[in-house]
Amino acid sequence: MPPKVIFLMADYGHDPTETAIPWQVFQNAGFEVSFATEKGASPQCDEKMLSGWTGTLLGANKAGKKAYGALSTTSPNFQNPLAWNDTSFSLADYDLVFLPGGHEKGVRQIIDSPRVHELLASYFPETKKPSRKSVAAICHGVQVLAMTSTGEGKSVLHDVKTTALPAFMEQGIFHATKLFLGDYYKTYGAGTASVENVIKTKLADKAQFASSLKPSPYVVTIEGPKTQQI
Predict the structure, then answer these.
(1) In the chain, where are the structural domains located?
(2) Contact predicate 228/145, CB 8 Å
(3) Are 60 and 16 in contact (CB under 8 A)?
(4) 212: Cα separation from own chain's centroid
(5) What Pfam families is this protein classified in (predicted)?
(6) How many CB atoms lie within 10 A of CB 7?
(7) What number does CATH give the domain 4-157?
(8) 33 in Cβ contact with 125 (< 8 Å)
(9) What's the pTM value of the predicted model, to 2 decimals?
């Protein structure tokens, strides 16, 4: 049987590139890809990243838009997702749980969801190696994990190395666009803490947060007895 991955998503607001390119990679690798939103509505990614002047100047590139077009029109599981708020829904059968990024305020639906936190709190310990299960998250997706608590009241990320959207990138694009877009690039509004700072408050040591000053993407993968992939 092929490995199974599920995307946990809000109804609206995720980054189209950070959703569609991973879907494309998983599809090409032979994964069985499923999606889940709160009540089973087909998710819609941030329209500002796809169309208009924002989509042209600030949004997804050609490859990202093409991948999102394919995802939204050809994937039956994307068009008819599962409902993570359903009491019968479980992550137990999945080999990988994926949390895409997105800064649009709609993603607060999943970042703040007690139900999603409950599901991840149960699944996250199962990713310790030699288990074949993993969790992966991009950008703001890591904040969902940061806000997920263990039974001891600590974040599931408390003892692991992780990464997310660097604060200098978030603050930089916010200040560069605030005259035209207001607080669009601040998921919780102007003046609120950056994703990086929120996550650092949940870690045992701020040094566990890996960052880079380079503009190119980077990945943190943890290997060892406490393995989690972020």
Answers:
(1) 4-157
(2) no
(3) yes
(4) 19
(5) ThiJ_like
(6) 25
(7) 3.40.50.880
(8) no
(9) 0.93
